[in-house]
């Protein structure tokens, strides 16, 4: 059985140096690292990519949120697009080599993302999470509905603990995405291995 993907997303609560140091230590168990810092300038995105590369992380494992320009300049694997980003079809037309992810929250959004040419989607949040306070999780039942109609890989995100991984994969997800669950753990290396072992 093909190994499922493990995506690690920067939290915004750490310095680039701290994020990159953890990434260096856990890279063997991680499929992709996402730089998601919403307040970063283009130069800060670029500098963080360079820090990751200095830590031995391949450009093919790095994904940038929204910043198509920096992704093209640095040669990273791809971009994760949000509702405020450029349309996936525009990015795909001009930069066919970029792997494009879209964040979706419904079947309608999934259909739109697929029609636009997204290579994969993030779906969540699955469980209650501190990053979305007061909002109930969409749950594994909704995840299964998405995976059954999706023509592209679906990566589950949001409040995922190691104990959740089996039911997420059983629901058809192609992998999971984590933020604080690993990056803010007391022992990120031990924690990422716990997740990876269940994938």
UniProtKB/TrEMBL annotation:
GO biological process, one term: thiamine biosynthetic process
Pfam families in the cross-refs: TMP-TENI
InterPro entries reported for this sequence: Aldolase_TIM, ThiamineP_synth_sf, ThiamineP_synth_TenI
Phosphoprotein in keyword set: no
Molecular function (Gene Ontology), one example: thiamine-phosphate diphosphorylase activity
A cellular component annotation (GO) from this entry: cytoplasm
Superkingdom of this protein's organism: Bacteria
Pathways per UniProt: Cofactor biosynthesis; thiamine diphosphate biosynthesis
Domain Thiamine phosphate synthase/TenI: 18-182
Keywords: Thiamine biosynthesis
Protein name: Thiazole tautomerase (Transcriptional regulator TenI)
């Amino acid at each position: 059985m093909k190994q499922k993907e493990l995506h690690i997303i920067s939290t915004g609560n750490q310095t680039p140096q701290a994020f990159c140091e953890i990434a260096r230590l856990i890279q063997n168990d991680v499929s992709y690292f996402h730089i998601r810092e919403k307040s970063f300038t283009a130069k800060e995105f670029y500098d963080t990519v360079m820090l990751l590369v200095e830590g031995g992380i391949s450009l093919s494992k790095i994904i940038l949120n929204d910043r198509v320009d920096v992704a093209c300049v640095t040669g990273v694997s791809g971009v994760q697009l949000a509702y405020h980003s450029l349309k996936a079809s525009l990015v795909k037309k001009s930069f066919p080599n970029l792997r494009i992810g879209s964040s979706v929250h419904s079947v309608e959004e999934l259909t739109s993302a697929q029609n636009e040419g997204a290579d994969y989607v993030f779906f969540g949040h699955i469980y209650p999470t501190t990053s979305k306070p007061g909002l109930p999780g969409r749950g594994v039942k909704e995840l299964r509905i998405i995976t059954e109609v999706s023509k592209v890989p679906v990566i589950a995100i949001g409040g995922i603990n190691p104990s959740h991984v089996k039911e997420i994969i059983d629901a058809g997800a192609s992998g999971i995405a984590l933020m604080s669950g690993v990056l803010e753990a007391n022992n990120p290396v031990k924690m990422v291995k716990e997740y990876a072992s269940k994938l």
